[in-house]
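residues and backbone:
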Amino acid sequence: MRRLEYKDAKSHKFWELQVEGEAYTVRYGKVGTDGQTQTKTCASPAKAEAEAEKKLRSKVKKGYVEVELDAKAVAARAAAESARNPELEAAIFDDPSDDAAWQVYGDWLQERDDAHGELISLDLQRATAKGATKTKLDARIEQLEAEHRKTWLGAGLAKHLAHKGIGDIAQLEWSRGYVVSATIGGSDRDWTGPSPDTILRALVKSPVSTFLRELTIGTSYDDDDWMGRMDKNVQAITKAGRLEALTQLSVTDTGDYWDISSTVVGDIGKVLPVVPRLRSLSLRGNQINIAKLEHAKLESVSIVTGGLPGKTARAVGRCKLPELTRLVVYFGSNNYGASGSISDIQPLLTGKGVPKLRYLGLCNAEFQDAIAQELANSPLLAQLTGVDMSLGTMTDAGAGQILKAAKKFAHLERLDLRKNFISAEVCAQLKAALPQVEVGGQEPPSEYEGQLYYYVSVGE
């Protein structure tokens, strides 16, 4: 570990760097505080070393000076980190239902006089207990939680959760003294308690989030531009290192308060490196920014928006998701920020980045005809069992490409073409050629001064 400090008449700050394998962690803030922590995972240990060294040199150029770390402080930090057992925790991360793994972990904690170990053991016993025995176990568990939960939460999170009305903005599900599922967010402009991003930062830094598996991030009310913002909330979870247990992440307006175009999701690309076991990613809102869509474990990705930026469309096209089986993308209208095109997603249609993909939704697009044409001629189509091209501006031209390649679509279990602009005659032809197809539900295009206008279903 290396430590730099900066001091002038107005401030005294620190910046610490630690490189471990393919990842490096920086901790920074005001001297005398715990500061904030950020972890980034790189492609290799060499790249992690190089990038970390580059950041360190940048700090030195800004006036930071490297200091010798106090041996006692280093020892204290090491002792605190050794209170965790990555190997035993990993067994639970990989299979939270494995009671044997929980028992071993609980025993290990008890050997260190950690009351959490006793709680785990009692909870395992309670699962099969009955009558007076179960009542006694319940009482002891309740006592342990009352005595230790504030310590387990940490001072910051304990203070936030004690706020009156906190249930309106934060819902937590507990198991064995740990938070395993959380929903944080709210759009009440009159809310005077801690902001969602403040709660999220405290949550992911707290020991009770060690086994957090499911997280839903909602909005914060922005009085300046009257929007529901999720971007600060999203970035809050990247500040405290890796969320090793997280398998499901959803970013959405949890209160269904805003039009989809009146929300800001923000930069999701920074989240992916800190959630190594993530299986499901669901995003709903506008201004969804992803520069690189790569992850070793993701199985399902859903991106629902009224306006997908071209950069994100290109990230989808170039994605490398070896375990992905389901992908749904809404492109939206250029009136609401959509700037993607068929060329952006052509690499996806080769199938090289998604070898296990079975269900593909390329929906709500102003270039829906081009999607139909390219998919009909793509290598990817053969490996799919379901295709969704609904909610867009497909006309008889795009539907005609599907009819022409009907044999290539015949193996699909589902083909959804609803709410496009396909004529009744061509809909009938599609049903005759592909009985599994879903069509209809669309309204006629708008007409203005003799010109027809086609529009996607989801925009604002």
User: Anything to note?
Assistant: The chain has a mean pLDDT of 90. The chain has three domains: 2-82, 86-152, 166-453. Residues 131-153 form the longest helix (23 residues).
